[in-house]
Specification:
CATH class of the largest domain: Mainly Alpha
Strand content: 5-15%
Number of helices: 18
Number of domains: 3
Distance between the termini: 51 Å
Low-confidence stretches: 389-406
CATH superfamily of the largest domain: Tetratricopeptide repeat domain
Largest sheet: 6 strands, mixed
Shape: elongated
Length: about 400
């Protein structure tokens, strides 16, 4: 490897893409193409970066398997940043195996971190934790240790383990300081903001207030009965009842929770559960059936008692009933939660992350675009959607994750 390639590689490792390009911008040999691709990725030109890395992978000879594998890992990172969730995961796994076989442990570990970040993005936290447990960051350079702690913090935040998240972010900040890469330090700072901005709304006794993640964590461990509109569950400190696949029952539970300790008139419950403007006798009969089903679902947590006007919630063990609502409510809040990270998403990637059909996501995006909440650029397969981060809010609780009892 000649001196210019060595100098360019060192510049990239130090977070200086312009310095790297100054040394290899006019060269078209395989190592130079790879370094130019990584430099363009650091500068934000992901399309050009992907093209250069693919050219580099083709240009490396049959005996340069490690170099080709590194190009694949770099392209996988670009795919993750550009939210191309359809990028072949098997290619990354094969590249990681090649790097491990040839003793490149640092880049093999980086490939693992990319895999974990993808699992975290689509809400497969158990798999992410199992994969992360196989990695010991101690022997790796500061940049890799920073990546490790950011993933640890990301999982802890999605699990609502705020103390563990703060500890991981503190370690990430320390490692980033040793790495002396400004972009890495900025990433740690951005991740830390999530813990210090409102994550949900608490609705109790007719009043609302914003909660930080730490306050949400404390609420879920308290003696309150929580109707969680972020996860669509009803829970106390010991028991969780999921109503995610029973939207009518959850709508009734939320209405009763918001009104506690009072009751909710039957006409209002009909409107909340069925969207009907007029509660005729058929809707009232249907309401009685659904209330019976809600009693059965919540029997270990609360009773549903009839009153002269309607129905009321009666907790069995809890001292009070509260509703935990997203900071941004609405029909398409989950789509906005993903777009709030500031990255550009394709509708197919959003569908994969949300576990919904692409057509359903496309209709949601069209509705949000008509309301001026999201924007798109490009056409056809390269069309991407984005929105600026919601000012002053984090939407972590809207992203997919297993139930706290899982």
């Amino acid at each position: 490897m000649d001196s210019l390639i060595t100098a360019a590689a060192r510049a990239l490792a130090a977070g200086d893409p312009l310095g790297a390009l100054n040394r290899v911008a006019l060269r078209d040999d395989a190592p130079a193409l790879a370094l130019r691709g990584i430099a363009m990725a650091q500068l934000g030109d992901l399309v050009r970066a992907k093209t250069l890395l693919r050219r580099a992978a083709r240009a490396f000879g049959p005996k340069e398997a490690v170099a080709r594998a590194r190009c694949v890992v770099a392209e996988a990172e670009i795919a993750l940043v550009s939210r191309d969730l359809g990028w072949p995961a098997k290619a990354l796994d094969a590249a990681r195996a090649t790097l491990e076989e040839h003793g490149d442990r640092a880049n093999a570990a980086f490939a693992r971190y990319l895999e974990v970040r993808r699992l975290l993005l689509i809400g497969r936290l158990d798999e992410a934790e199992r994969t992360l447990a196989e990695l010991d960051p101690t022997p790796f350079p500061p940049a890799s240790r920073t990546a490790h702690e950011l993933v640890v913090a990301g999982i802890a935040i999605r699990r609502l383990r705020t103390k563990a998240a703060r500890a991981a972010l503190a370690r990430a900040e320390l490692a980033a300081g040793h790495a002396r890469i400004p972009a890495l330090t900025a990433e740690v700072e951005s991740a830390s903001v999530v813990l210090d901005t409102p994550a949900a709304r608490l609705i109790a006794s007719g009043e609302e207030r914003l909660l930080l993640l730490e306050e949400v964590d404390a609420l879920l461990a308290s003696k309150s009965l929580v109707v969680d509109a972020c996860r669509h569950v009803v829970r106390d400190a010991r028991t969780v009842v999921s109503l995610g696949r029973r939207p009518v029952l959850f709508a009734l539970a939320r209405a009763l929770g918001e009104a506690w300790p009072g009751d909710v008139p039957r006409d209002m419950l009909v409107a909340r559960a069925f969207g009907a403007k007029l509660a005729d006798e058929s809707y009232r009969a249907r309401l009685r059936v659904e209330i019976g089903r809600l009693r059965t679902a919540l029997r270990t947590l609360a009773g549903v008692t009839a009153t002269k006007r309607g129905f009321a919630l009666a907790p069995r063990r809890a001292r009070e009933v509260v509703v935990l609502a997203p900071p941004v409510d609405g029909e398409h809040a989950a789509v906005l939660a993903f777009l709030a990270d500031g990255e550009s998403w394709s509708s197919s990637a959003l569908a994969q992350a949300l576990g919904a059909s692409q057509r359903t996501v496309q209709r949601a995006l069209d509705s949000l675009a008509a309301a001026g909440k999201v924007q798109s650029f490009g056409r056809g397969r390269v069309r991407r959607w984005l929105t600026p981060p919601l000012p002053g809010f984090t939407t972590t609780l809207l992203l997919p994750a297993p139930l706290p009892s899982d």
